[in-house]
């Protein structure tokens, strides 16, 4: 009996982990898309891989955009410092 309860607890923890990570929602969405296909694909596994791959591609794109944003922020800071220095030179030349 104790083994059965421990097993159920582990299953429940794993289910909560999958739910929290968004895995269950992603799988459910893909399975619903497969269900709603009027012409079922010959290879359901390829259908799942293809549709789940879209999410990983989106996350790769998002990561690339995050990196570009960080680079642009750094460049902006450098340009602002350069601008400040040039303004100070202009002021010094007038005074």
From TrEMBL:
GO cellular component, one term: nucleus
Stretches assigned to coiled coil: 55-89
Subcellular location(s) of the protein: Nucleus
Keywords: Coiled coil, Nucleus
Highest taxon listed in the record's lineage: Eukaryota
GO molecular function, one term: transcription coactivator activity
Family, similarity comment: Belongs to the AMY1 family.
Name by which UniProt lists this protein: c-Myc-binding protein
């Amino acid at each position: 009996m104790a083994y059965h309860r421990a097993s159920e607890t582990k299953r429940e923890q794993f289910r909560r982990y999958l739910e929290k990570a968004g895995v269950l929602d992603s799988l459910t969405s893909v399975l619903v898309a497969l269900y709603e296909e009027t012409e079922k694909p010959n290879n359901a596994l390829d259908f799942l891989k293809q549709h789940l791959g879209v999410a990983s591609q989106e996350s790769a794109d998002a990561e690339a955009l995050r990196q570009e944003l960080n680079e642009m922020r750094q460049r902006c800071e450098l340009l602002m410092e350069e601008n400040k220095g040039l303004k100070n030179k202009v002021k010094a030349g007038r005074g």
